[in-house]
Amino acid sequence: MLDPFPPPAWFQENVSHPLASYLRLPALSQHTHESAIALVTYQLTHFYLSPFLSRWLFPRHYPNLSPATKLNWHTHVVSSVHSILISTVAVWVMLHDEEWRLMSYEPVGAVERVYGYTGALGLLAALAQGYFIYHLVMATVHFKVFGIGTLFHAVSCSAFIFGFTPFLLFYYAPFLLFEVSNPFVNNYWFLKELGINRGVLYIVNGALLFLSFFVCRVVWGSWHTVFALSDLWSSTEDTWSGSALLDRNHLRCISAERINEALLEACVEQSKFASEAPVRTPTWVAVMYATPLLILCLLNYFWFFKIFRLAWRHIQNHLKTS
Length: 322
What we know:
Pfam families: TRAM_LAG1_CLN8. The chain is mainly alpha-helical. The protein has 13 helices and no strands. The chain has one domain. It is globular and about 65 Å long.
């Protein structure tokens, strides 16, 4: 699928191409404007929209918050906005980007999933990168409030920019669905801040938090982590050429009787930056990417254990008082 929001010619010529060339991230040349728009949107939400809505919805509570708590409050609002947006776009990509689905689970398909590109995946990565830049700025400027853990997380998330090589863009769609659980995590923080630790709203949010975290991070995340690691390993062993992959995409589109100008253009786009990729993935690159994938997977298990323990404690307390 082509990017539905291509960059203006003047912006691409004067900003996107020079920046992408300097950073050696070819696919970024097509999506710099989207990252910039996302970043500005999150900044406006933090400094204007969130304070306005907070004063309106919580006129007694919000004005009495400390500056540090207000900062945390606004970052949670932005996190929820980002999570809802990015999860929606990720689902849209997986449902409507036929080229994404054509990166099938077969031997050569591993190379497509590691080095393939579609405009829709680029849009998804750009929106995510806009938030990660915001996250990094907040964690750096307000280090005393958020601490080393948040800064480390922000720096790690910023590594998403290397997807514009392109590299592992295929997995951005399934992995960004981790964000589905974040609004419920943020709601838990808000409810706790407002002193609401019981009642229907608290119970429903807790149930949705538990369910979304288990399904999207533990089950879905583990499943796709296994496939991503398998593809990384395969790409270190297989020798390939961008032109051969491009021809294969042409033939696949034609054999599926999908040939028309627009669809053929989309198939060609899948290998648009294939010439920038090495003939095989260096082992050190695969290890560098595999390590955080495994760490994130283990962190998801650890966080889910904490959520489960908290939920069980609430259940026990409820049984004691009933």
